[in-house]
Specification:
The chain is of the alpha+beta class and 439 residues long.
């Protein structure tokens, strides 16, 4: 385990070129045997699913443990950013208590997705239990964490976080206490990429209605159903153009996108004195959907992390199957201002939010509209997972269900104990890979 991996060597080489963060995430779509004319590996639009998961490390009392560097050192023999295994890679995030998991190559099959990433979870769960009496916990925010109980990754590639800290206050929930599920979807050419971006922009607010899983932080109920997304929207408020309205703007070309989005926030960051490490970089864009030109993919960031891998797979199947149907229809795009308004309402009220959409008066009705499109366009394997989404739409997203469970339990005990008891069941759900509290 202590030997140099291929990924470590690649990182060291690229670090000399100061392409620090790009290498942390860019290899997902760069392996295979199909290349375009410029020699870059490419997939057909929507051909594969490239997930990235974020989980907290906690003890049995649900206390967040800022030990990711210690875990990596014990597992690998020395501190590195990422440890590559045969099928998956795990490693650091900005927060010392959060670990990221991603595959070494994207998945065509959701079944392979589930099997591989659950193997990753169980591998680390077993190691954490044996060496640290700890385990992993999903959802969009740690429910008890106080900001002084964790820290920022202090090892290799810390330069990028130091560059951010010169402009932004990293010691707030939008940096130190958020866990999201990212999904990368490939595009085959610019035309398909633009349509994919604009269609996802239109879906964005309503995806959060299904995926919200962050009702509690610092041991109390937040004001919103999706508190992670709210803090995410605020974390770079010093330079508003970095996050925009979270809902990505519609665009007509790569050149327009690079000028109006990347160029704009890079100019604003430069004026504020930002280090060149974070200037003119596509990954600095913090909207809920962004282009990853280095991967020839679109990365969806709008979603909270769920309680188990199977639930993440279900979200992925919903998105890919719905897009498969929507991309073959006449585009039906709402004004950007309407999407932003709906997102803010959904963050507050979840599936019960009143929205301005031609296919439903509530977020629940709009989600059912996207679910029906997904079901009609899903493969046999994708359909196996869509029942999870159906139950979430009918019975409530994970955030709404968690709030209900904790409130009910807190009538018999104090709130902290109710939180620990309820979220401990979520930790068990991650190990068993079974959606929790399905009613």
């Amino acid at each position: 385990m202590a030997q140099h991996s291929y990924l470590d060597k690649e990182i060291e080489y690229k670090q000399k070129e100061r392409s620090v963060v790009q290498i942390d995430r860019s290899f997902i779509f760069n392996r295979g045997n199909s290349f375009n004319r410029s020699g870059v590996f490419t997939y057909r639009t929507l051909e594969v699913l490239g997930p990235e998961h974020e989980f907290s490390i906690v003890n049995d009392a649900l206390k967040a443990l800022p030990i990711v560097d210690k875990v990596i050192k014990d597992f690998h023999g020395r501190v590195v950013n990422f440890v590559e295994q045969p099928k998956f890679t795990f490693g650091k995030e900005l927060q010392l208590h959060v670990m990221e998991f991603k595959p070494n190559a994207p998945f065509k099959s959701p079944v392979e997705f589930e099997e591989t990433m659950q193997e990753a979870v169980l591998t680390i769960q077993d190691f954490l239990q044996r060496r640290f009496h700890a385990h992993l916990l999903g959802t969009g925010m740690h429910p008890l964490l106080k900001l002084d109980e964790t820290g920022i990754w202090p090892h290799r590639h810390r330069q990028i976080y130091e560059a951010y800290s010169k402009i932004f206050n990293l010691r707030r929930h939008g940096w130190l206490n958020i866990q999201s599920f990212h999904l990368n979807l490939p595009y085959s050419n610019e035309k398909s990429a633009i349509l994919l971006n604009n269609t996802l922009a239109n879906m964005c607010p309503y995806l959060s209605a299904i995926s919200a899983s962050s009702p509690i932080y610092e041991g109390k109920f937040g004001e919103r159903v999706d508190n992670r997304l709210y803090f995410y929207m605020q974390n770079q408020k010093e330079i508003p153009s970095v996050t925009g309205d979270v809902i990505p703007e519609y665009t007509s070309s790569f050149s327009e996108y690079k000028t109006n989005i990347i160029g704009k926030y890079s100019h604003d960051l430069s004026k504020a004195g930002a280090d060149k490490l974070i200037l003119n970089k596509e990954w600095v864009n913090s909207r809920g959907v962004i282009f990853r030109f280095d991967r020839r993919a679109i990365e969806i960031r709008i979603m909270d992390e769920q309680e188990c891998i199977k639930s993440d797979v279900a979200l992925s199947c919903l998105i890919r199957a719905a897009l498969r149907g929507l991309l073959n229809r006449e585009p039906e795009f709402l004004p950007h201002t309407v999407l932003v308004q709906d997102l803010n309402t959904i963050m507050m009220n979840g599936l019960n939010a009143c929205v301005h959409h031609p296919h439903g008066e509530t977020a629940r009705q709009v989600c059912k509209y996207y679910y029906d499109i997904a079901l009609a366009n899903a493969s046999a394997d994708e359909k196996k997972y869509l029942s999870i989404i159906q139950k979430r739409i009918e019975c409530g997203n994970l955030s709404e269900i968690l709030r209900e469970k904790v409130e009910k339990k807190s009538q018999r005990t104090d709130l902290r104990e109710a939180i620990i008891d309820t979220y401990s069941k979520l930790a068990e759900s991650l190990t068993r890979n079974q959606p929790c509290f399905q009613r």
